[in-house]
Amino acid sequence: MKQSYSSTIEENLKQYNSSLDGLNSEQAKSVYEKNGPNSLGEAKKKSWIIKFLAQFKDVMIIILLIAAAVSIGISIAEKSTSELVDGLIILAIVLLNAIIGFVQEAKAESAMEALKKMTKPEAKVLRDGELVKLPSTELVVGDIVVLEAGDIVPADVRLLETALFKCDESSLTGESKAVNKDANLILKESTPLGDRKNMAFSGSTVVNGRGLALVVGTGKNTEIGKIAKMLEESKKEETPLQKSIKQVGKVLTIIVLVVAAITFVVEMFARPDEPLEAFLTSVAIAVAAIPESLPAVITIIMSLGVARLAKRKAIVKRLHAVETLGSCEVICSDKTGTLTQNVMTITALYYDGNTELSPDASDRIEYKLCTEIMTLCNDSKKNKNKFVGDPTETALCDYALKNGFNKSKEEKLIPRVFEIPFDSVRKMHTTVHKKEDSLIQYTKGAPDIVLNRCTKIMTGGRVCELSTEKKNEIISANKKMGGNALRVLALAYKKLRSSNPKTATEEDLIFVGLVGMIDPPRPEVKDAVKKCLKAGIRPIMITGDHKHTAFAIAKDIGIAKKESEVLTGAEIDSLNDEEFLKILPKINVFARVSPENKVRIVNGLKSQGKIVAMTGDGVNDAPSIKSANIGVGMGITGTDVTKEVADIIVTDDNFATIVVAVEEGRKIYTNITKTIQFLFSANLAEIISIFVATIAFPNFIFLSPVQILFVNLITDSFPAIALGLEPAEADIMSEKPRKNGTSVFGGGMGYMVAASGIIQAELVLIGYTLGIKFFSAEVAMSMAFYTLNLIQFFYFVSMRVKRTAFKSNIFKNKWAVIAVAFAVGLLAIIAFTPLHTFIGLTSLNLTQWLIVIGISAVIFPLTELFKVIRNRAFK
């Protein structure tokens, strides 16, 4: 079956069993029953309960829940309160983590609802030969609809008649200017979406003229319906950190089970008559192995990062998206409205050999004529504080107004009395005005056509013959503007000899000038692109606009240098997957692409191991935004659809804000890795020390579960959260992004965890051994407990920075100082009040305290040494 745009009007009417009088009611009912309503259907929504329960699916959370269940089970069986406290504390931590995650991600996925808002509730339809208004949901293929300026196109339609008909399709195709439509065109099957000028698409807006059209696609069979289907099919992947933590959780589960089992066996050999004590020791090992506070601490760190980003005009909808930004390797950005201003702007003006836009020229007659023609041969209207209409014409009026030419005032002084409207064959627009006692004709249009109609030129304040030399000069100026991807219009006029305006002809015109316009880059984009390149991030432009325009903008802002770096949607479609993936690393600009092309680009980059961010504002960007590792929507110009599927919304539509968000993401990820290093080092020290002590001193209790929980939840948690507030390292945006799949323990962090954990365990065991040898079992337990706690504070001061801590300002993060002071204060309250008896500790004398402090302080210089080794070995 031939496509509607490649078939004649008669063939289309025959194919859909319709006529210019439309369908009758019986035909419409039959088609409706077959195809259903003209809607996108209902999106499947998760209940609030399901969304809340999803917070508990993480492996680490499951391990914590099992540990809590075991502790509570033991407390019930033994009627013991300490294990009950352990279990309840763990449950409280898990619940806190779930609440924070749920609140942050509470916004429902309602992209389908947003898409439905783009369709107009009513449509003007010919039914039974009469023009009636019907709900747009009742439209069927074969219906004949009437479209006028201001209407939202209710379905995909093949145009049958057009009069000055223009559509704004920017949200669907990405093309910034309104598209002229022509019902009489018959196009090739391979014609891309943005060039199908005999079609109008559901959700686009009629900005000018009138049209009669045949409905050829409804509901999910429209172009916007295809986008909706892609949104339904695409699923969000786990972030790199989530994958890494998940893997760590699996490994941790195995370690917990193996070590706890070995401990139980050893304890049973040592104390065969005390199986419960052996089991409790195994539980202590399990509790020691699990960093109970880690999920909550990571969630809190990311939430604090989200709050900081909100102040910098980036709203994070999906919590884990924050850390994904830190590993971003490619930013695929839509052009229109993201890299550019989405406002056609006059950037070049040529008259009498002059190319200056300076207002100083406003006293020259040629300049005055240019502004007169721009605004009077113009159909845009003033609505409140802005001009509305065709973007090209509003750009002309905006420019003239900024330079002192008031359209409304001049229209009263020089009223329009006749018009020859623009059409796609003539490519000109002519208006006739009454100026004083005579008639004057203004014409604007395609430079080559208008110039061929000119016989004279306004130069030096007077009208002269248009010489070949002058004509070549104008052609050269036009080529130069076109070479910069400007849309160029020629401006001409003539005085009518007749008093009858209808005698106006577009011949023997007087050439006045050329005006060039473009949707220009945002002022801050060049610097943002430079920052990306310096940070090892590859910016890619993906647009529905023309190849020439896309390259000009990309070259201007630094994304591309050569035209060979540009690939069109048609060229993408001609490549198989192997060919496409081979050429993908060499392409930095994709032009004239469809939504399907965008998804293919994003998925291609992901298949090559890249972490991809996709930005955009139109409906056409939504599927690729959802497919990307991280989707970034625009807050001002962005459609509801894009905002709903995005992970992050940039509220000022500023590309530079995305770079700020990437920097914040890097800082958050770095601080999370520091937190993981800090917590896992402590947990490893606990596992090793308890395991060794169980074997070496089988008749003594080393540390109880509640004591280990105190270290994990009090001593470690507050400094760990403070690590999330560490300022960014000075060179954070000079480093290359971490590679996809890199373990959270990569880059030497696994070495730091192992080395620090082993040394911490040795120091704790030294304290315990000295307590057993010279004092008592109760004192030994207390010395081990306080040594384990104080070690964390000395270790924290050193590991906060990559380089040496001796050159670092330890007070630069006030929250770190407060966190350590708070944790030390709590430890002091435990140590020097009767509260220590509640967790099975005893008082220490001055000598014992000096031993504890001396042993604990050893970790600081050793950590500094470990950092030197790491920084040399893992450059």
Automatic annotation (TrEMBL):
MF annotations from Gene Ontology: ATP binding; ATP hydrolysis activity; metal ion binding; P-type calcium transporter activity; P-type sodium:potassium-exchanging transporter activity
Membrane topology: Multi-pass membrane protein
Location(s) in or outside the cell: Cell membrane
Domain of life: Bacteria
Reaction(s) catalysed (UniProt annotation): Ca(2+)(in) + ATP + H2O = Ca(2+)(out) + ADP + phosphate + H(+)
Chain ranges of the Cation-transporting P-type ATPase N-terminal domain: 3-76
Gene Ontology CC annotation, any one: plasma membrane
Keyword Ribosomal protein: no
Sequence similarity: Belongs to the cation transport ATPase (P-type) (TC 3.A.3) family. Type IIA subfamily.
Name assigned to this protein: P-type Ca(2+) transporter
